[in-house]
Amino acid sequence: MKKKDFVVRFAGEGGQGFLSAAQGFASANTTAGYHSQTFATFPSQIMGGPTWMQARIATYPIHTRGDELDVLVVFREEAFQNHKGELHENGVVLYDSEKLEVSESIRKLGLPFEKIAKSTGNARAANMVMLGALATLVNLPIDILEGFVRKRWGDVSRYGETIVPANIKALQLGKEEALKSSFSVGELELPSKPTYDQILLNGNEAIALGAMHAGLSFFIGYPISPATSILVWMQKYLIGKGKFVYQASSEIEAITALLGAGYSGVKAMTSTAGPGFSLMSEGLGMGWIAEIPLVVVDVQRGGPATGLPTKTEQSDFLNALNPAHGDVMLPVIAPGTVEECFYATIAAFNWAERYQGPVVLLSEHSLSERQQNIIRPDLSKIKIENRDIYRGDDEYQRYQSNKVSPMPIPGSSGSYVANASEHDGVGDTTHLPHRHVEMTNRRFSKLSLLEDGSYESENVDSNIVILPWGGSKGPAREAYDRLVKEGYSIGWAYTMFLHPLPPDLLSILKDKDLVLVPELNYLGQFSSYLRGLGINAYSITQYTGLPFKVVDLVEMIKEKLES
Amino acid sequence: MTKKNPEYDFKWCPGCGDFGVRRALEQSLNKRIVDLEEPIENTVVVAGIGCSGNLVHLLEGVQPYGIHGLHGRSLPISLGVKMSRPELNVVVVAGDGDFLSIGMEHIGPQAQRNLDVCVVVMDNAVYGLTKGQSSPTSDLGMITSSTPYGKIEIGLNPLRLYLTLGVSFIASALSSKIKNLADLIYQGMEHPGFAIVHVQSPCTVYNDTFEVLKGNKKKGIAPIAWDIPDDHDVTDWKAGVNLLDNGGIPIGLLYSSKERVTFHDKIQSEKLPVRDVEQLFNTYKV
Predict the structure, then answer these.
(1) Start-to-end Cα distance in chain B
(2) How far is CA B220 from CA A301, B202, B208, B211, B214, in A?
(3) pTM of the model
(4) What is the pLDDT of residue B1?
(5) What is the pLDDT of residues A325-375, one digit of tens each?
(6) CA atoms within 13 A on the CB side of A296
(7) In whole angstroms, what is the distance from residue A484 CA to residue A317 CA?
(8) What is the nearest CA distance from B208 to chain A, expressed in angstroms?
(9) How close B225 gets to chain A, by Cα (Å)?
């Protein structure tokens, strides 16, 4: 039987160029009609340090990066030792025989990548030799990779005339060397080309595109891993009349500038990660009390303080929900896939405009670095909302009602004060007890405008339901599918709208004996919130800085089901 | 909006310098309405936290838009207003604790960018609203509730700081000379770039410096405030630095350079065509 999916991991040192080779490999395969998903992890440094990247190629849509490796490509001894344990029993190690020796009796193929590359006249084609050999191990037609080479380096004016033929030669040589060995990890089934249009991008690119489509015109952000690529993208593409993009001098400057921009009538956003999000606390509190629409993207990384800048974790949920002192509870949307990153960002803007306040978009490192093929969004089907603007005369009481009220825009009549202190109808400071009660109630009541989030549910007649959030959706989904196949009676529920939860989903969950929440943090943050809502939720946690593996999650869920 | 809400109960203490600053700001805004035929709704007053910040609620007559923001953050809030809506007239009102202590980090970046806002700093060299603690501009050795044995830090010279950071319009004023102050604020609002009007606005309760500033002949006290001479070249940065070497508090326009382009006129990407999402999707096409 032919294989339907295939997992390869490239491991070595940062700066060896295999990250882009691996991305090219995934890209070439999606062009051929396969589905792909990549995963990368690296230390917080530019050159050197243990780095690895994984690509999963399949004939069907996939949810995760894959657990076991069909091929492990290594460029140094340490990488081999660290990763060999994750090889599938039929897996093959492909290694650079000039850099390390593999003496163990496992399936292995050592080639002098650079030496072979030099014979093509381009010593830098070592990665092409490697890809040629790799493709051959799974009987992947070499013309898929040749097509990639022509597309990537085909611009003669930029790359010259020799690179394409040299790289194609290198692919061929890699293929020939691999054929000399008798190894195969099984033939990969040929893909059926999808009938719909697709795009291939990572989570941060999807967020940036979503924001642009939602009507973003003011972006300010401070460089921080793993959110920086959103700032860089915005600097390049959010251009033209009326668009402002800038690198802030700090996250405090970024959030407070958003307050000024949101107040002035434009759609404004910043992107950051945990440490920057912590600095934004006070500004987010002001956005809430002064009722200013804005969107903050928190691409979560690991740990408190500086923590783990380049690893993944889902440990900012409680901080996103209650980022500031005083009575504040912000709307939180957490995408779980690259595709959801796009739609979640648009939803975040719609929510911010509708309830007139800050919305937190909670992404995570694993999504920011994940490249995935998704169905090209049909923009004509997406609803874009804009705030209700005040168009009346002067003497307007902007805050004088128990629900959301039209917002005056500077330059037109209806002047008022947006006040970080508790205030009366026109925004002037007040300390009257009944006013604080009225205004607090007003702010919380606006959250009910946001109860339109969508959700997924399957087998929810079952007494036990799995409810992952964010990037743990993929592993949880594959774990769920396996458990159902094995005969376990469990249900599936999922939403990216974490606060407020879709009311129908809330009532489903309240009825369950047990709601299992796989999440990447120590505290079990999402389940503690769910228990506060009257749901018997129990977290399955991991805090290694890496995403769940499906096989581990299946075991942890079984353990809980059987206890 | 012209009428104030009766619920608002904040009051400045009798004799507070901030009364004069308020009057001067009202006069300069009214002058814009008359001379420039600009509607009051085109002005946004961004206030920090402290006695000074309450000015945004205490303005009398026609009401501009206002933001009463966070302690120290009036400048970046004003950046958000100005850079999203460059056609608006943006005025920042802040105190010395607000602007020069917690908010100090924001002055340098705006000076370097030449953000086109006008800041009115009300300096009383003390934290008034929290009942009299020392501030960056309090003198060395000053006794306050937080420095019972004398202030250990030397007093900051804000005018020298602004010159050093590259602020493109710097004026110094007294809250009691309202006409002169109104004129400087008007000029600051008209200045194309980052303007600071630094006002000596004494606190009559915790640090009454009226007499020190203006002197008292009967008591034989010489004034520390002195008028910048008419022949001072305001475009000469070095002349501004030298002037400060005379000590005391110079009053008037210290420095003004219109040579630098404003922040919003520097944004080159504004001139490029807007990118289309469909067109960008094509670059990610499989």
Answers:
(1) 56
(2) 66, 20, 17, 11, 12
(3) 0.96
(4) 45
(5) 999 999 999 999 999 999 999 999 999 999 999 999 999 999 998 999 999
(6) 38
(7) 29
(8) 27
(9) 35
Determine the 3-state secondary structure of A92 from DSSP.
Answer: strand
β-bridge partners, A370: none
- Please give the ipTM for the structure prediction: 0.97
How close, in Å, is residue A268 to chain B by CA atoms? 9
Cα gap A84→A81, rounded to integer Å: 6
Q: Taking CB atoms and an 8 Å cut-off, how many pairs form between chains A and B?
A: 204
- CA separation for the pair A322, A277 (Å, rounded): 12
A262 vs B80: CB contact, 8 Å cut-off? yes
Cβ proximity of B73 and A256 under 8 Å: yes
The pLDDT tens digits for A135-163 are 998 888 888 899 889 988 888 999 888 88
pLDDT < 50 positions in chain A: none
* Half-sphere exposure in the Cβ direction for A309 (13 Å, CA): 13
- Contact across the interface for B85 and A199, Cβ inside 8 Å: no
Q: Is the pLDDT of residue B2 over 60?
A: no
Cα B123 from chain centre? 9
- Residue A109, H or E segment: strand A108-111
The residues near A58 (Cβ < 8 Å, ≥ 6 apart) are: A4, A5, A6, A34, A35, A36
d(CA B226, CA B238): 19
- Spatial separation of the C-alpha atoms in residues B260 and B266, rounded to whole Å: 10
The Cβ of residue A382 has, within 10 Å, a number of other Cβ atoms equal to: 15
Contact B275 A411 (CB under 8 A): no
Are B198 and B158 spatial neighbours (Cβ–Cβ below 8 Å)?
Answer: yes
* CB-based contact, B60 to chain A, within 8 Å: no
- Residue B180's pLDDT is 98
